[in-house]
Write a structure and sequence with these properties.
Blueprint (H helix, E strand, L loop, with lengths): L7 E4 L3 E8 L1 H10 L12 E3 L3 H8 L9 E8 H9 L1 E3 L4 H6 L2 E9 L5 E11 L4 H8 E6 L1 H12 L3 H5 L6 E2 L4 H8 L3
Parallel strand pairs: 5-6
Antiparallel strand pairs: 1-2, 1-9, 2-4, 3-7, 4-8, 6-7
Helix pairs in contact: 3-5
Length: about 190
């Protein structure tokens, strides 16, 4: 049984993949430029999620209005850990949350069919003060996963869940520095 609060992600020695879902206009512009550009908003928090299945649940497999395109956003681990070091859990004191550059919340991880599991997945909200660093310094690459997401959804709906799983990114436990473990688990 997985620990209740644990980051699982697709990562390598230098980068980690987080997922976001956007309207086509935002995704197309970002993919063209290799970074987020207008109509992406730099004036609001952007949420990044290292759990592929959690984002599939959230975006209804790229079918939710405004979330029809799924992007894999490969960012530096240094940027990821810098964000986490500035994080405040959304369950903390409301005044602390309001002042935080980064918000972290833990939501139930999801199964292939969207059922809540007994362990949690991290969601990280990058606030306006850090969103330029996220975009300009942390992003290594953007990949459009929409075709594979739609194919996996169709396979799952037609009784081929095992084949659909082969299309998913490989996620494993992300090794957090001890200082971040304590910060992210307190109050969790």
């Amino acid at each position: 049984m997985a620990p209740q609060y644990q980051i699982r992600a697709d990562y390598d020695a230098d980068t980690i993949v987080v997922y976001q879902a956007y309207a086509p206009a935002i995704a197309d512009a970002a993919l063209r430029e290799g970074r987020f550009v207008a109509p992406f908003s730099f004036h609001r928090m952007t949420w990044i999620k290292p759990s592929f299945l959690w984002l599939m649940h959230r975006s209804n497999w790229a079918r939710k209005p405004g979330q029809e395109r799924v992007l894999a956003v490969r960012i530096t681990r240094q940027g990821w850990e810098d964000a986490l070091s500035q994080a405040v859990l959304t369950t903390a004191d409301p005044a602390a949350v309001a002042q935080a550059a980064v918000h972290v919340q833990w939501d139930p991880e999801r199964s292939l069919r969207g059922a809540a599991l007994n362990h949690y997945s991290i969601q990280v909200g990058i606030g306006r003060r850090l969103i330029r660093a996220f975009n300009d310094d942390w992003i290594v690459s953007l990949t459009d996963l929409t075709p594979q997401v739609r194919k996996a959804a169709t396979m799952t709906q037609t009784g081929h869940a095992t084949k659909a799983k082969r299309l998913f990114p490989a996620e494993r436990v992300y090794p957090l520095p001890r200082t971040l473990e304590g910060l992210l688990s307190s109050g969790g």
